[in-house]
Write a structure and sequence with these properties.
Elements: H1 17-27, E1 34-39, E2 49-52, H2 56-68, E3 73-78, E4 83-90, E5 96-97, E6 100-107, E7 110-117, E8 122-129, E9 132-154, E10 157-176, E11 182-192, E12 197-199, E13 206-210, H3 213-220
Antiparallel strand pairs: 1-6, 2-10, 3-4, 4-9, 5-13, 6-7, 8-9, 9-10, 10-11, 12-13
């Protein structure tokens, strides 16, 4: 929802941020008029290396050619060091799992339910605290980087190792009622291929971890013929 479509207006006059935080946290505990539930992502292992039956030179050629055909930005291509540094910027959902958010709101207009992955790039929904309804316009962005190294482990065998760094940024625009003022909240978390991070409130603390697809997409480039 955007200002152009009659939705949120950025920026509007400031409201008391603490009051909005308290209300959204309370919404997670409310059980009558509305409810806000959060389910954290399930744990899982991320594969960060792969060995292929190719000499180092052939593996290098295949890797670079394969990455160039993907949506990554190649920032460093160092053949002498066997190293490629690349970046991905945009929708977090393919590469990050932040669990699931479910919000239910019940008013005189009826009952509305919102369920969505917490890693979704853009989501507009409502939460309820007591009799107050808060509209939330939620935006996420991923700035991801991957360091890829190739090394010969035999005359015709090469191992590739991919180590990722994830920077997930979230901004929430919160409005009370249909014509209320807007308050914004921004948070960022940083983690690597084997780790996880947290995005603070208002609302429940959201845990994010890699899906493993970023690393897999990079390592799959080794199978691309030049």
């Amino acid at each position: 929802m955007s200002a152009a479509s009659g939705g949120f207006c950025y920026p509007c006059r400031p409201v008391v941020a603490l009051a909005v935080r308290i209300a959204l946290v309370a919404a997670a505990l409310a059980g009558c008029a509305g409810r806000l539930d959060y389910t954290a992502p399930a744990p899982g292992a991320v594969v960060t290396s792969r060995t292929v039956d190719r000499p180092l030179e052939a593996a290098w050629t295949a890797l670079v050619a394969g990455l160039e055909r993907r949506r990554f930005s190649l920032d460093v291509v160092d053949r002498a060091a066997g190293r490629v540094d690349l970046a991905y910027r945009g929708d977090p959902e393919p590469y990050v799992d932040c669990g699931t958010i479910v919000s239910s709101v019940r008013t005189l207009r009826g009952e509305r339910r919102y369920e969505f992955p917490a890693a979704r790039a853009a989501q507009v929904y409502e939460v309820m605290s007591g009799r107050d309804v808060y509209a939330v316009d939620r935006r996420l962005r991923l700035d991801g980087r991957m360091d890829v190294r190739l090394e010969a482990v035999g005359p015709a065998t090469t191992r590739a190792t991919a180590r990722g760094r994830y920077v997930v940024s979230r901004t929430q625009y919160v409005r009370r009622g249909e014509h209320g003022l807007v308050e914004s909240f921004s948070h960022t978390t940083v983690f690597d291929s084997r780790g996880m991070g947290e995005l603070a409130g208002p609302g429940p603390v959201v845990t994010c971890r890699p899906t493993g697809r970023f690393e897999a997409d990079v390592l799959d480039a080794l199978g691309t013929e030049p």
